[in-house]
Each structure stands twice: as C-alpha cells, then as structure tokens.
Design brief:
75% of the residues lie in helices and 0% in strands. By secondary structure, it is mostly helical. The protein folds into two domains: 224 residues, MFS general substrate transporter like domains (Growth Hormone, Chain: A), CATH 1.20.1250.20; 195 residues, MFS general substrate transporter like domains (Growth Hormone, Chain: A, Up-down Bundle). The N terminus is likely disordered.
C-alpha cells in the first residue's frame, strides 16, 4: 500500500492524465498515509449498506408508529433505492468540480444528516431522510471504483474485494443489531439513529485527505488536460460493453433486493417459523462476504471473467431453484448457494466496472452509469415480484421469473467478461 497517494485539486481527480514531471512531483509530495487511506475506504464501505439494512427489520414498527399501510411502509426501503439510482448521475460531475476526496467526505456528512432526519417527528421527515440517505450512498457507490482505479491501479481487484466485503459486513451487522439496538435504546428511533455515529467517524477519517488535496493548491501545479477522448471521454451510451456491465450490475442487484424483501416471507409461507427464517436469511447474508472477497481476487488474475460469471450465476440459480423445489427442507443449503452466488455476483459487477475501464475517469463514469440504471432497475424488482405473488397466490411464478433473470445474467456476463477496455479499445465503444 506504500504507493497510495492523494491528488492535488488542480488535477482532475477522475481524469486519465499523462502527468507532467511537476504534476508527478506534486503527487509524491501530497501522499497521504496508506493506513489512513485504507481505513477511510473501509469505513466508507461499511456505511454503504448499513443505513439501509438496519431499517429493513424495523419497517413494521415504523409503519405502526406512523399508522402507515403496508404499501406506504415499503417506501422506507424503496425510496433509498430510487435515489441511489438518481443520485448516481451527479457523482462524476461533482468529483470533477470539487475532487473525489471532498465529495466522499460530503457524502458521509450527508449520510449522517439523512440518518438523523429519518427519526425526526413528522412522517415527511422519514421519507425525506430516506431520499437523503439514498443520495449519499449513491455518491459513495459511484466514486469508490474510480478512487480505487486511480490510487490502486495495480491492486484494483484486491481493493475491490476489500471494499465490497466491508460493504456486506456493514449490512450484515446492521441487520443483525437492528432489533437488539431497538430494545436497548428504547425504540426504533434509537436503533436507526445509532448508525449516524458510524458515518460521522468515517467522515472524520476523510478530513485529513481533503485538507491534503486542498493544500496542493499552493504548489502551483498547472491543470493537466485529458490525454484522450476530450473532456468527457468515450460515449458510454454508445458502448455495448458499457451497457453489458450496467445491466449485469442492475440484474444482480434486482435479485439481491428481491431476496432482501421476500426471502424470509417465502420460508414462512411454507411453514418455517419467523425466527428460523430470520436466521437463515442472516446466515445467507453473512456467507455473501465469502463470495464478495474471493471472486474479485480471482477476477483480477484473469484476462477474461466469462467463466467466473457463469459459475457465480450458476450458484445463485441453484439456490433460487432450491426455493422452488424444497424451500424448507433445504433452506440452509439454499442460503449457502445464494450467499456465495450473490456475494460473488456483486463483487464481480463492481470489479468489472474497474477492469473494463481504461482509466480512472472512465471507471467513475461507468460506475455512475451502471449504478444509476442498476439501482433504478433493482427498485422495480421487489414491487414487481410482490405484485406477481399477489396475483398468482403463490411463489412458483415469481421464483421462475428470477430464474429467467439468471439466464439473462449469464448472457450479460459473457459479454461484460470479455477482455476489452472502454477508452483504450475501439471495439469496446463501437
């Protein structure tokens, strides 16, 4: 990690640049401590799902408190997803204007404020806070791949493994602690508000890096210009490879959020107790850390990730198929298969944003595109599958539809896993 560094603000933090000698010298002078940067990345990653996962087990209590219908209560989890998609649009532009470190710090401060806003007395504050939380997480989601591509170009896969695993760990711990914190702190408000502390600590760790980049203004380093592709780089909307990565991200996210919303319900509808269903779901989420850590490491050692994509999707499909064949009898096995497959698919999707990009600027833009459309697509999944379940009176058709999504994921993985890079390979943008 000794090669990590923080860029001076006169250099566009997301551009692929060919630095002049004085720019390179400035970068060496403005090097932040590797341990501090690593800790900042890990803590920011822990926050990227904790505020969402910690709310899911408390939706019924929140609904009872405000006397909301079941459909209205579901907005507590749906609104953040929508704003995770919409907020992703602005992230690359904000980073070019203010610098990656400053925007990451601002996102953590915004996240802290949004978490606290959710527990304010009026019900409108609950939904406004959900929107703020989703927007803050969108900025973190989009900028992290570009930061890793820029500061860890030779260790991109291992760093992606680290941050995706930390992200899942944050979700697992927050979901598991939600009810105990509610009991200990006297209500759902205390449980939700407690995660603002994690965001605040993460924000504090980014302050030195923001100050270091701002201090670079005094070095007199001239602004560099992009080496290729103009100010905005290649047109991602015209790149089949960019759309394959985007739809891969969106489809695996759709399955993930459908499982978050409905997996315990599938078990209880087939006779399992609520307690055991919750334990199986928590165990599946915990197992995801294995897939999210191992798969990016393997992906970074391969020129093509097509076979790896097929393998993780096959694991996921076997777990989903098990919910159709023997949901209760094989529940723990399906939890393992789903956990490994979902964690691996998430890790692979995040890694491909980096591996398919020729430079840090393109990585940030591809991340923005993939997560904008990906989370908007994911937001549709739980509502659509719930509607199909209500219309058919069972889980057979919804589960079959999830298997069809897995088939589509295989085709997208074969395309996104090719050895091509947007921004350096003309064939990738045709």
């Amino acid at each position: 990690m000794s090669g990590t560094r923080s860029e001076p603000p006169l250099i566009d933090a997301e551009e692929d640049l060919t630095p002049a000698p004085q720019v390179a010298a400035a970068r060496r002078r403005l090097r932040t401590h590797p341990a501090l940067l690593l800790a900042g990345i890990v803590l920011a990653s822990l926050n990227m799902r904790a505020a969402l996962a910690g709310a899911s087990p408390l939706v019924s209590e929140i609904g009872d408190h405000f006397r909301l219908t079941a459909t209205t209560s579901s907005l507590v989890t749906t609104i953040p997803l929508v704003f995770m998609g919409l907020g992703s649009i602005a992230a690359p532009k904000l980073a070019r204007r203010w610098g990656t470190e400053a925007v990451l710090f601002g996102a953590l401060v915004l996240l802290c404020g949004g978490i606290l806003l959710r527990v304010a007395p009026p019900v409108v504050a609950l939904f406004a806070g959900c929107a703020v939380v989703g927007t803050a997480i969108a900025l973190l989601n989009v900028l992290m791949p570009g930061l890793i591509k820029r500061d860890f170009p030779d260790r991109a896969a291992s760093m992606t493994a680290l941050y995706s695993t930390a992200m899942i760990l944050g979700a697992t711990v927050s979901a598991a602690c939600a009810v105990p914190l509610e009991n200990a702190l006297g209500g759902w408000q205390g449980s939700l508000a407690s995660w603002a502390l994690l965001a605040a600590v993460a924000a504090l760790l980014w302050i030195p890096q923001v100050l270091i980049t701002r201090r670079g203004t005094g070095h007199g380093v001239p602004a560099a210009t992009a080496a290729r592709g103009g100010g905005d780089g290649p047109r991602l909307s015209r790149s089949p490879l960019a759309w394959q990565v985007t739809l891969f991200m969106g489809s695996q996210s759709l399955i993930a959020y459908v499982m978050i919303a409905w997996m315990p319900v599938i078990f209880t509808d087939h006779g399992m107790s609520k307690t055991e269903a919750g334990l199986v779901f928590a165990f599946s989420t915990l197992v995801q850390m294995g897939g999210s850590f191992v798969v990016p490491m393997l992906a970074g050692r391969m020129r093509r990730q097509r076979l790896l994509a097929v393998c993780v999707i096959a694991l996921m499909a076997c777990g989903i198929g098990g919910l159709l064949a023997a949901p209760v009898a094989g529940a723990w096995l399906w939890a393992v298969l789903l956990g490994l497959g979902q964690g691996g698919a998430l890790g692979l999707a995040l890694t491909m944003m980096v591996l398919r990009s020729g430079d840090a600027h393109t990585a940030a833009r591809l991340s923005g595109m993939a997560q904008t459309w990906g989370y908007l697509l994911a937001a549709v999944g739980p509502l659509a599958l719930g509607a199909v379940h209500q219309a058919t009176g069972g889980w057979t058709v919804p589960v079959v539809l999830l298997l069809a999504v897995c088939v589509g994921l295989v085709l997208l993985g074969l395309g996104a896993g090719r050895d091509r890079r947007i921004g350096t390979d003309p064939a990738a943008t045709r």
